[in-house]
From TrEMBL:
Belongs to the CFA/CMAS family. It comes from Streptomyces lancefieldiae. Residues 156-414 form the Polyketide synthase-like methyltransferase domain. Pfam families: CMAS. Keywords: Lipid metabolism, Methyltransferase, S-adenosyl-L-methionine, Transferase. GO terms for biological process: methylation. It is an enzyme of class 2 (transferase). This is Cyclopropane-fatty-acyl-phospholipid synthase family protein. Its EC number is 2.1.1.-. The keyword Iron-sulfur does not apply. Gene3D superfamilies: Vaccinia Virus protein VP39.
Length: 433
């Protein structure tokens, strides 16, 4: 009798201490769980072994990337239903020791072990980062981390991001249901950054973490400024340089493969840092802020666009998300927006405005997922099935996290205010003159 799904449902509910909100379909064809709900497809027993040897998020991630687990139905709905049971429990594998003191939980684990088959730990998927010992956020380790994330092929990013080639939160004029294209929303975001920075003809802009050159091109073309864009990705730089040449902007835009810590040709009138500071790390953040402060002329502006997490009661317990760290952004760290503001102020900046655009990122991510899913065969050919599955899960789970206010994204405008006290900003800052 095919009953693996029912057994799994019972075991998972014992372990989680709550009803499973999704349906299960097991490798033997059996199904169990609430009718009409998204279906968690357990393709083989190896998925269970991954969970047993790496309980928590990393085990789930490995099973997903390897194709041992899948979702049949709307991925966003499934992740939203599972979020409260898995990602928002707060402990992941660290709570397992305490949970195992419960006899029913121990019995459930023994049941999973029996159902999983021979106890051999499956090898991690090849897409998982292979760790190199050493200090975090050195120039060398940052180059490796950036290469892992960005040097997967420009064609893949073209498929996901669309023509704008902007890999950060777009700025939507209205709810998605009321229309508006991703390209328009990304253009509006670049223009918003430009207006906050007060860009005007003849100024110099430093774009830190310039990606594929979209901000640099927009600032030079629309505001007639000279731009230096820096990135650690050789693939990004080559792509950006070609775009700059195609736009006829080589006299105003320079793209460098350079660490921001090595930029020494200031002062600049303005600095944009869009979706880059998440890579800096807590230990290096003040250094990052000080370096940018030094590169600005008095009265110069910094626009720091950065994802933030919710603060914890005990910040010493913060740990990097296991899935993101192993498969997406190695060594990436999120900080509460208050921490970011404090570090910028410690560096000497006057923080003049903080704008949360959290809901905008959820809309952006949903568009990226739609782009990926609409040409799935091409995506898997350009990278690998496992890599494409990483990006699909990462973007969909991130969209749900933004929607549930687990993470946010903020634009922080800071000024290197001179000793005279004149910031150069209008009294009503949201007019962005």
């Amino acid at each position: 009798m095919a009953d693996a799904a029912l057994r799994l449902q019972n075991l998972f509910e014992q372990l989680l201490g709550a009803p499973l909100p999704v349906r299960i379909r097991a490798w033997d064809g059996s199904q169990a769980g609430p009718p009409g709900a998204p279906v968690l497809v357990v393709r083989n027993r190896r998925a269970l072994r991954r969970l047993l040897f790496k309980p928590g998020e990393l085990g789930l991630a490995r099973a997903w990337v390897a194709g041992d687990l899948d979702i049949d139905g709307d991925l966003f709905t499934a992740l939203d239903l599972l979020a409260g049971l898995i990602w928002e429990r707060g402990e992941d594998a660290r709570g397992l020791v305490e949970a195992l003191r419960d006899p029913e939980v121990r019995a459930a684990v023994r049941g999973l072990v029996k159902l999983a088959g021979p106890p051999l730990p499956p090898a991690p998927p090849p897409e998982e980062v292979r760790r190199v010992r050493g200090h975090l956020h050195t120039k060398r380790s940052d180059r490796r981390a950036i290469s892992h994330h960005y040097d997967v092929g420009n064609n893949f990013y073209e498929l996901v991001l669309g023509p704008s080639m902007v890999y950060s939160c777009a700025y939507w004029p209205a709810p998605e249901s009321e229309g508006g294209t991703l390209e328009d929303a990304q253009r509006d975001k670049l223009e918003l950054v430009s207006r906050k920075l007060g860009l005007s003809p003849g100024q110099r802009l430093l774009d830190v973490g310039c990606g594929w050159g979209s901000m640099a091109i927009h600032a030079a073309r629309e505001h007639d400024v000279s731009v230096v864009g820096v990135t650690l990705s050789h693939e990004q730089a080559a792509y950006a340089r070609k775009r700059v040449a195609d736009e006829g902007l080589t006299d105003r835009v320079e793209i460098r493969v350079q660490d921001y810590r090595d930029v020494a040709d200031g002062p600049y009138d303005a600095i944009s840092s869009i979706g880059m500071a998440e890579h800096v790390g807590a230990e290096r953040y003040l250094e990052y802020a000080v370096d940018l402060f030094k590169l600005l002329k008095p009265g110069g502006r910094l626009l720091n666009h950065q994802i933030a997490r919710r603060p914890q009661r005990d910040e010493t317990t913060y740990s990097v998300d296991e899935f993101i760290d192993a498969y997406v952004f190695p060594d990436g760290e999120l900080a509460p927006v208050g921490t970011t503001v404090t570090q910028l102020e410690r560096a000497g900046f006057e923080v003049r405005d903080v704008e949360s655009i959290r809901e905008h990122y959820a809309l952006t991510l949903r568009r990226w997922v739609a782009n990926l899913e609409s040409d799935w065969a091409t995506a898997t050919r350009l990278v690998s099935p496992g890599r494409a599955r990483v990006w699909r899960l990462y973007m969909a789970a991130s969209a749900v996290s933004f929607e549930r206010n687990r993470i946010g994204v903020n634009q922080v405008l800071a000024v290197k205010t001179p000793e005279t006290g004149g910031s150069g900003l209008p009294l009503r800052t949201r007019t962005w003159n």
